[in-house]
Amino acid sequence: GQGTATRVLIIDDEPAICKALSIALSRAGFYVKTSLTGDGGIRILKKEAFDVLVLDLRVQDMRGDVIFELAKAERPELATRTLFVTGDISERADKIIDACRCPLLRKPFELRDLIHFVNSMAPQSHDASA
């Protein structure tokens, strides 16, 4: 049941990406919530704990690294369980992600790669295949 599923929060301001990732991860057995804004994502984190955060570096209302800092303030465990996704290949983007010490998937990416990353970051106490 939901109690044992790995919980994933996706913050990305592209509705199509949120929808695609949500469907793919749900099919793979994850519990998923999505937010199109940084502010909305932080509000969700205040109410609920998540195992993994999937975070777009460029969300309209807030920079990804700012969202990351706010998320960590709410849920310190997400410091090592955040995956950045971005189509931004600028040096500035690389610097931000390096500073956060988080893995990065460049858009467009394969859904199976995303699922692999999420699985590898999730706490290993429960098996996603169960």
Describe it.
The protein has 130 residues and is an alpha/beta fold. The protein has helices at residues 15-27, 38-47, 64-74, 91-100, 111-121, and strands spanning 7-11, 31-35, 52-56, 58-59, 62-63, 82-86, 104-106. Helix 2 (38-47) runs parallel beside helix 3 (64-74). The protein starts with 6 loop residues before the first strand and ends in a 9-residue tail after the last helix.
Briefly, what is this?
With 130 residues, the chain is of the alpha/beta class.
Work out the helicity level: 40-55%
Largest sheet: 5 strands, parallel
| Straight-line distance between termini | 10 Å
The geometry reads as globular
Q: How many E-type strands?
A: 7
Mean pLDDT: 90
Low-confidence spans: none
- Can you list the strand order of the major beta sheet? 2-1-3-6-7
Strand content: 15-25%
Gyration radius, to the nearest Å? 13 Å
- Tell me which oligomeric state these chains represent: single chain
- How would you classify the helix and strand content by structural class? alpha/beta
* Secondary structure tally, helices: 5
H-E order? EHEHEEEHEHEH
Distinctive features:
130 residues; alpha/beta; five-stranded parallel beta sheet; 5 helices; 7 strands; 42% helix; 21% strand; globular
Helices and strands, with pairings:
Layout: E1 7-11, H1 15-27, E2 31-35, H2 38-47, E3 52-56, E4 58-59, E5 62-63, H3 64-74, E6 82-86, H4 91-100, E7 104-106, H5 111-121
Parallel strand pairs: 1-2, 1-3, 3-6, 6-7
Antiparallel strand pairs: 4-5
Helix pairs in contact: 2-3
